[in-house]
Amino acid sequence: MNLIAESGRSALKIAILYDEQFLLHDTGPNHPENSERMLSAINFLKNDSKLKPNLIWPSFGYASIDVINLVHSKEYIHLVKQESEKLTKLTAKLSTGDTVISKHSYQVARKSVGAVTEGVDQIMKGKASSGFVFSRPPGHHATKDRGMGFCIFNNVAIAAKYLQMKYGFNRILIVDFDVHHGNGTQDIFYSDNTVFYFSIHQHPFYPGTGRPDEKGSGEGYGYTLNIDLPKGAGDKEFIHGLKSQLIPAMEKFKPEFILVSAGFDAHENDLLGQLEYSNNGYKKATEILSTIAQKYASNRILFVLEGGYEPTNLREASVSILNTIISKKIKAD
Ligand SMILES: [Zn+2]
C-alpha cells in the first residue's frame, strides 16, 4: 500500500452536496428549472457501482444571513424572505426579475448556499478531495441586490467570498461554462483582482452581457475573461477557448481554489441553449480544469450546478465530470 497516497488528498472521496429540500422550490407547471431536472443524476450517483465507492454525501444546514450578506444586501435578502413567505398562491414572480418563487423558495435558496459553503468546508478540512453541488435554485445571474434568470442567491459568488473570509484565499478562479453568461457573478467581482471570473457562453443570448471587451474595471481590470460563441458551436470551440485563453491566464493568476458554475444547458439538445457540447466535451474540459487545480490549487475544485434543462444530459454530463475526476485521481496515486 502506498501510504503517502493513502494519507494524501488524492486518496479522498468526492463530496456530493444534495438535499431533498431542493425539490421544494416550486416553479410551477412547464418551467424548465423544475425539481425533476436533477433527479435522474442523483438516482444514478446513488446506485452506480463504479461511482458509489468514490462518493460521500455530507449533510448541511441553511446558510446564515451573515453568510448570504457576504454578497447580497440585507434589503434584498429581506425582500426574498418577505415575497416568498407571504405567498398565498402557489407561485409568483420575484419582483426584481424573471424568477418564479413559491412559499419555500427563501428557505430552499438559503439551503442552496448552505450546500456550497459545506462543499468548501469539506474540501478545506480535508474530508473530500473535491466536490459537486447539486442544488437549486441556481445562482450565477443574481447580482448583489437583484434575483433574475431563475436565480435567487449567487451560490458560487458567496462560496468565493466565504473562502476569502474563512480561509484567507487571495486568488480564486470561477469558471462558468453554463450556456448563459453569469452576469451576476461578473458584476459582483468586476473591480476585484482576488477573484478571476472566466465565462464561455452563447452570444447573442440571454442576458446579453459577457462580450470579450468586458474585462473588469479598476484593480479588477484583466480579471474578467469572456468568450462568446455563436449558436451551433460545440466541443471544438469549447476546448479551444479553455486551452487558448484560460490556461495562459491561469499561468499568471495561479488560483488557490477553483469554483465551477457548472450549467449543462450548453449540452447538445438542451431545451434552452443552442450550443452543441457533448459528454466528451465535458470530460475534456474537466481534464483541463483538474490539471489547473492540480498545478496551483492542491486539487481543490468545487463544481456547482447552474442551468441544464434536459435531465438525461444533466445526468450524463455530470457523471462524465465525476468519472474524469476519479480517473485523474487514480493516475495521480
Ligand atoms: Zn443557463
TrEMBL record:
InterPro entries per record: HDACs, His_deacetylse_dom, His_deacetylse_dom_sf, Ureohydrolase_dom_sf
Any one GO MF annotation of this record: histone deacetylase activity
GO biological process: epigenetic regulation of gene expression
Occurrences of domain Histone deacetylase (ranges): 31-323
Similarity annotation: Belongs to the histone deacetylase family.
UniProt name for this protein: Histone deacetylase superfamily protein
Organism: Candidatus Methylopumilus planktonicus
Taxon lineage: Bacteria, Pseudomonadati, Pseudomonadota, Betaproteobacteria, Nitrosomonadales
